[in-house]
Amino acid sequence: SVRTSGQFASEKDLAAVNLRLNDRFYRLSDIADITRGYTDPPKPLFRYNGKPAIGLSIAMQKGGNIQEFGKALHERMDISTAELPVGVGVHKVSDQAEVVDKA
């Protein structure tokens, strides 16, 4: 498997990459099948309450106000969470703005 750095917009872009092997050039698609998928088995596996989950970290830019950032983030998360499909939820693991508010 190959992990790309985001330079490729599609599988076709990746398939068109030229490789040099033994003084000959090949397209990646000539020597490999290009598919989009997930790592199997998944590594590293993020869990919440023992169940598979997706981890997302959101950080404030340098010089910002953590309380204002936290308030704006909560407002956006409320909007985004309302648009999630049934069965998909958001669970906060850590919130620096709340820690600062309580200090």
From TrEMBL:
Molecular functions (GO terms): xenobiotic transmembrane transporter activity
Source superkingdom: Bacteria
GO cellular component terms attached to this protein's record: plasma membrane
Alphabetized Pfam families for the sequence: ACR_tran
InterPro entries recorded: AcrB_DN_DC_subdom (IPR027463), Acrflvin-R (IPR001036)
Protein name per Swiss-Prot or TrEMBL: Efflux RND transporter permease subunit
